[in-house]
Design brief:
The structure is a single chain. The chain has three helices and two strands; from the N terminus they run H-E-H-E-H. Strands 1-2 form a two-stranded parallel sheet. The longest helix is centred in the first third of the chain and has 13 residues.
């Protein structure tokens, strides 16, 4: 069952995108970008755009490879 956040997201998305759109979603692996990707994937087929996931591993901190692998698995 959808919660209030998901319902609000669907309403807003319906005014901005449609099934003919392409959405580039930048996913760091953190909670906010993962939540955005999840919400986009759960849009109704009428609204859901083609989703392209982008992730950039700068390799500036330990653990960045773990984030990259997580995003790769999530995107698949």
């Amino acid at each position: 069952m959808a919660d209030a956040v998901e319902v609000a997201f669907h309403r807003a998305a319906g005014r901005l995108i449609d099934g003919r759109s392409v959405a580039l979603i930048s996913v760091s692996g953190g909670g906010d970008s993962v939540a955005l990707l999840h919400l986009m994937a759960r849009l109704s087929p009428k609204l859901r755009p083609q989703i392209v996931v982008a992730h950039l591993d700068h390799r500036l901190r330990r653990g960045s490879a773990v984030d990259r692998r997580f995003v790769e698995r999530l995107s698949a």
